[in-house]
Design goal:
Order of helices and strands: HHHEHEHEHEHEHEEHHEHEHEEHEH
Strand order of the largest sheet: 1-7-6-5-4-2-3
Shape: globular
Number of strands: 12
Distance between the termini: 67 Å
Oligomer: single chain
Structural class: alpha/beta
Number of helices: 14
Number of domains: 2
CATH class of the largest domain: Alpha Beta
Helix content: 40-55%
């Protein structure tokens, strides 16, 4: 029997781990085992008529690596298979993915609604960047879907959320917000980087577009910058693709190759990191110097039931509030020997950051308070170290606070 008749020849019938090793693979005439890096800017055409047909979209093929490249295309196909999306486009960074996704769906005179609890760069896009181009925006408390309903206008075209949020790990009810957005003719865009595609599927819950910083878990080892936008074919191949083609927030073929390698081990890494994160959440919850622990799958989380409904697990981030404010939080972070101080996340190495003075430092005290970002808050991205070492590291550091 030829392999074409084997049911598993159809990638969509394979399990996620198998798709992440083989999905989207296209071998050259050399039959390489690992994906090739097509590190070139342009492509040649067999004839002038062939070039014309390709530019018109009448014949398939690549034109220019700013918007189409074989290695980047393999990454896009593999990411789409994992996400359950019809199409995907890679970008130079995660913020390029967010900005492109949002800007692709609005025009001057439109309105956008977003949850107020956002990564600093994402909130800048909604709160500062969109109004420069004639798009008004409204920020709401994303924990209550009714806040989105009250903020919708006849000209609302986009609803944008993160869930879990950066850095406080609040949740947004994706199905409820999707229903509200669609009832008003708006597109729901979800930044799913904290949950990862392993533990949450926004498209299945009603989202129209999903964005990731591939820099985070998809790479997973702090090597390369990149982002990806996934969703319905008509959205990706129309406005999203056009903005990437014409404005150029393009993914490097080399970075796409790094992400392809990262996707092969993504489930293994994320599951191991999540197991350790859950153990750390339990440790923090019982520690006398911790005022608050936020982890979606810990029973103390105020949206625990929602987390269990829309996520497969709590993922790899834990937020803690150290008693004693900034001074105590700094003492804890500075005393850690295994966990590094940095502002990345999703890395094989565990990382701690102080959002109030780093990723969200530009916000006023009132804005920080509204987002739940206190002086004692530390955001922990759990890596692949032994969980006992991580707990011992924090046990010592907390004794110094």
């Amino acid at each position: 029997m030829s392999k074409e008749k084997n049911p598993l020849f159809d990638h969509t019938r394979r399990k996620a781990q198998t798709m992440l090793v083989h999905g989207g693979m296209e071998r050259s005439q050399h039959g390489e085992t690992s994906e090739a890096i097509f590190f070139n800017s342009g492509f040649v055409y067999p004839t002038s008529a062939g070039a014309e047909a390709r530019f018109k979209g009448e014949e398939p093929g690549h034109i220019y690596s700013r918007f189409s490249n074989p290695t980047v295309e393999m990454f896009q196909k593999r990411a789409a298979l994992l996400e359950g999306a019809e199409a995907a486009r890679g970008t130079a960074t995660g913020m390029a993915a967010v900005t492109t996704a949002v800007m692709s769906q609005v025009r001057a005179g439109d309105h956008a609604v977003a949850a107020r609890a956002l990564f600093g760069g994402c909130r800048y896009v909604v709160e500062d960047y969109l109004p420069r181009w004639g798009v008004e925006s409204t920020l709401v408390d994303g924990r209550d879907p009714e806040n989105f309903a009250r903020a919708m206008r006849p000209n609302t075209k986009v609803v944008f959320v993160e869930t879990p949020t950066n850095p406080t790990l609040e949740l947004v009810d994706l199905k409820a917000v999707a229903d509200i957005a669609h009832a008003h003719g708006a597109v729901l865009i979800v930044d799913n980087v904290f949950a990862t595609p392993i533990w949450q599927k926004p498209l299945e819950l009603g989202a129209d577009l999903v964005t990731y910083s591939a820099t985070k878990h998809m790479d997973g080892q702090g090597r390369a910058l990149g982002g990806v936008i996934l969703g319905r074919k008509e959205l990706i191949e129309a406005d999203v693709h056009t903005i990437i083609r014409q404005t150029g927030p393009s993914m490097s073929p080399f970075n796409a190759w790094v992400f392809l390698k990262g996707l092969e081990t993504l489930p293994l890494r994320v599951k191991a990191m999540t197991e350790s994160a859950a153990k750390l959440a339990d440790f923090f919850a019982g520690h006398p110097k911790i005022e608050l622990v936020s982890y979606p799958f810990h029973p103390s989380h105020p949206q625990y039931d929602l987390a269990k409904r829309q996520m497969g697990a709590g993922s790899t981030l834990v937020a803690i509030t150290v008693k004693g404010g900034k001074e105590a939080a700094f003492k804890v972070a500075d005393a850690l020997a295994v966990v590094a101080i940095s502002n990345n996340l999703g890395d094989a190495k565990s990382i701690v950051s102080h959002p109030a003075t780093t990723t969200h430092q530009r916000f006023s005290d009132a804005d920080k308070a509204e987002m739940g970002i206190t002086e004692g808050l530390l955001r922990l991205s759990v890596g692949l170290e032994d969980s006992e070492d991580l707990i011992a590291d924090f046990a010592y550091a907390l004794d110094q606070a």
